[in-house]
Design a protein that fits this description.
By secondary structure, the chain is α/β, with parallel strands linked by helices. The chain binds ligand JDK.
Amino acid sequence: MKFEVLTIFPEIIECYIKHGVLGKALNKGIVEVKVYNLRDFTSDKHKKVDDYPYGGGAGMVMQIEPFYNAIMHLKADEKPRKLVLLSPQGRKFTQKLAQKFMEESKAMVLICGRYEGIDERVKAFVDEEVSIGDYVLSGGELAALVIIDSVVRLIPGALGDELSAVEDSFMKGFLDYPHYTRPEDFKGMKVPEVLLSGDHKKIALWRKRQALKNTLKNRPDLLKNLSPEDMRILKELC
Ligand SMILES: Nc1cc(-c2ccc3ccn(Cc4ccc(CN5CCCCC5)cc4)c3c2)n[nH]1
């Protein structure tokens, strides 16, 4: 899978993708990330990318020309790609949308604005407008990294043999169970006995109960389409 990122701060993207799962996926050739500086697609000596908003208002708005020039440059190879604009007003990004992007797109262009946003006319050239949550960031780069990271985790082989994104809790429809590792007793804070029992059936049931308990407490909105067994466990918790 190939990601092409348009931004005025390429360093933000370049620094993050070197590390962890993403770094390994890049080294394995499972994913390719190319970052383009929008200033390289300007036509003035000052490499200007923003201007005052028509109609007045605070702040600056990013001009359409650098975005247009960059998008036309990418499209010159006539390869199919999904163009995604990051914005506070976009469609909410979820694990389900990450799965859809991974399954449907061989290449994605992630368009990152800054300032108070970008000229509305850019939207004529994009396929999706996506928000990663109901809060305002300073630009699209963090949102682009969230999308890259969560989509790459879903690519078969990206996480290495021992891990699988399929196990990620959001894929199962509720939150994760608690995790523990050594030491068994840290300043009197002990690991739950059941996890030391070696009884895998009991451990699995305990983890399911804990996951449902966490979900009921923090994200009851995720508790739908439960299996009869999960519903039985949930009723015991109420
Ligand atoms: N999920 C998410 C994505 C983004 C995102 C993505 C892309 C850009 C490009 C610029 N910014 C910063 C920005 C955009 C708009 C405003 C004005 N607006 C006024 C009314 C209330 C909402 C904000 C202020 C600052 C971005 C922010 N934030 N959150």
